[in-house]
Amino acid sequence: MSKQPSVVPASGVDQLTSDVLDGLRKSPKELSPVWFYDEYGSDLFDTICELPEYYLTRTELGIMQRHATEMAQLIGPLAALIEFGSGTSLKTRLLLDHLVAPAAYVPVDIAREHLLEAASSLARAYPSLQIVPIRADFTQPFELPPRIATAQRRVIYFPGSTIGNFSRNAARSLLESMRRIIGDDGAVLIGFDMKKDAQILERAYNDSAGVTAEFNLNALRHLNRELGTNFNVNAFEHRALWVEEQSRIEMHLISKRHQVVDIAGTRIPIEKGEHLRTEYCHKYTPDAFASLAAGAHLLATRSWSDPENKFSVQLLEPAKLQ
Ligand code: AVJ
Whose CA is nearest to atom 14 of ligand 1? Predict the structure, then answer.
């Protein structure tokens, strides 16, 4: 068996361990959502995307299918397309299919194997496209390849409602850093999930087949394998709850009994009924998103949605001070 690839940064176990410890010392305890995604977790996520309750992926894809032509027109020719997270998916392809003479495709991802996969599968599909993968954590400053200096404009693609995983402040900083990267005449094409009926949202994150539960619990399995911790995975229960004041779904793992977890020699007690928070999924109204973007000096110059207004894809451009 080959070693399972992991999206966890190869920055040395010590930093990782101390990040995990920091989270487990908070109240409530927290774990980063990056722990969902080992090979098994990535497969589970692919399964989630096909679940009847998880409308996000297919809704966004529908929007892209209907409007990619117009999106590409608004982006214009000779653009460098910079994707935050590396896409091999249909959404990225739809965009690439319609762009006129794109100058380059620049996937940015922390995980080497995701980058390689994206680069090789897109290179096969678009033999004349210049692909310049960058291995970086896009929440931190990183260098852009000098080659894209000749592009007509820089356009960041950030699909999948990944922005929803960030707290308001972190989301604003991320948009600010995008604003810096695109310069005065670039753009950001971003997809986010809209606020809607709490029941629909809770079902999307607590599906009847139990795949999301398995996905959530997999964070603990991944930790046990990667850091040698001893979480008793069977003694945790998945919970997805809508928190109205924060307009977000929170994914939690609840311990069914008292247990003590050993992490690099530190013993962390977890009480019966105690919650570990593993993920935020913020949901935005159009107004809330507009004010988030405005905080980063970005303005939606065009937005697209599905007929039921479940999901939104927006073209953000620098807000001009007149
Ligand atoms: C991949 C982060 C967009 O927040 O909906 C799916 C991850 N978590 N089910 C989301 C997820 C639980 C997903 N994102």
Answer: 162
Cis peptide before 269 (omega within 30 of 0): no
State the distance from the centre of ligand 1 to the C-alpha of 85, rounded, in angstroms.
13
Q: Is 166 exposed, middle or buried (0-12, 13-18, 19+ CB in 10 A)?
A: middle
Ligand 1 centroid – CA 59 distance (Å)? 14
Helical H segments across the chain, by residue range:
13-25, 39-50, 56-75, 90-98, 112-125, 168-182, 198-204, 211-227, 286-295
pLDDT tens digits for the chain (322 residues)?
A: 334 444 444 444 478 899 999 999 999 999 999 999 988 998 999 999 999 999 999 999 999 999 999 999 999 999 999 999 987 788 999 999 999 999 999 999 988 888 998 999 999 999 999 999 999 999 999 999 998 989 999 999 999 999 999 999 999 999 999 999 999 999 999 999 999 999 999 999 999 999 999 999 999 999 999 999 999 999 999 999 999 999 999 999 999 999 999 998 899 999 999 999 999 999 999 999 999 999 999 999 999 999 999 999 999 999 986 5
User: Measuring from each residue's beta carbon to the nearest atom of ligand 1, which residues come in under 6 Å?
Assistant: 48, 56, 160-162, 164-165, 205, 212, 251, 279, 281
Q: How far is the CA of 77 from the centre of ligand 1 (A)?
A: 32
Q: Is 248 left (phi over 0), alpha (psi -120 to 50) or beta?
A: beta
State how far Cα 52 lies from the chain centre: 20
Please tell me what DSSP assigns to residue 225.
H
- Count how many residues are written for the chain: 322
Q: Count other C-beta atoms under 10 Å from residue 61's C-beta.
A: 19
Mutational pocket test of ligand 1: of 36, 44, 48, the residue with most ligand atoms within 8 Å of the beta carbon: 48
Ligand 1 pocket test, candidate residues 249, 279, 282, 313, most atoms within 8 A of CB? 279
